Structure formats: C-alpha cells, structure tokens
Amino acid sequence: MARFIAVRWGLGLGYAKTVVGAAFHAAEKYHLEPTTLLAIAARESSFRHRQDADPNNTYGIMQVIGRYHRDKFSGGVVHPTTVTENIEIGAKVVREYLTLEGGNEPRAIMRYNGSENKEDYQRSVTRLKKLFNRVAANPAYDIKEDA
C-alpha cells in the first residue's frame, strides 16, 4: 500500500510508510477501516501534511479544524501535530461522526467535510476507498491500471 501511495501521489516511500502505518494503527484503535482514513487523507490533502498552517483552521494530512475539535487534541489544547497525531485526531472525528450518523459511513464522510449534503465529496472518498481496497487485496497491484 505504501509503495502504491508513494508512486501515485509522488511521495517519499518512508513518508508513505509512516502514513499507512498511522492509518492502520488509528483504524484499529477506533474500530474503523484503514482505507477510509487513507481515502479521506488523499481527498483532503493529497497526503500532504503542511505544518506551516494554523492548527485552529484546516490543518495537516486529515485537514482537521482544531477550533471545532479541541477535545480530540491531547489535553484539549490545539497545537501543531505530527502526521501520526493528525491521522489519529482525524480518526477520532470519523468515529464520532459514524456514531452520530448511526454507522452510516456516507453520511459520516459528508459530515467530515462540513456538510451533510456534499455528495460529490463523499463519492470521491468512496472511490478512493475502493481503490485502496483493491490495492490491499492485491499487493502486486499495477498502478497503470488506474492511470
């Protein structure tokens, strides 16, 4: 998976491994599918973790808005995060929204984007999740199949 993400999004392999490892860890911790977290990160930031942005606004690989999710930061204090921390905070948000939406993932994904009516965003995340599921099912997945 990391190699696929590195090639497809033009990232360093080490960084891609960190992203994938963090997504799998957070997914296990919050009972989510790792491909959901990877799809959101791909859609939100193309896996780019800008650290020069204000963490109270959209920030990091998961584009979490700190001022709305203070409770998900360590000690309730919004601060710049590492990639791993940002994915974990994003996973907490996804878990909360899945609970609020009664397990309805499409609605939780729309809520993550800030609106329960952004079906284009939800469809994009779902397409990416399906792509990541194909890659996970076939480690020899040829990136040219999706070119």
From TrEMBL:
Domain of life: Bacteria
InterPro entries named in the record: Lysozyme-like_dom_sf, Transglycosylase_SLT_dom_1
Domain Transglycosylase SLT: 23-123
UniProt protein name: Transglycosylase
UniProt lineage: Bacteria, Pseudomonadati, Pseudomonadota, Betaproteobacteria, Nitrosomonadales
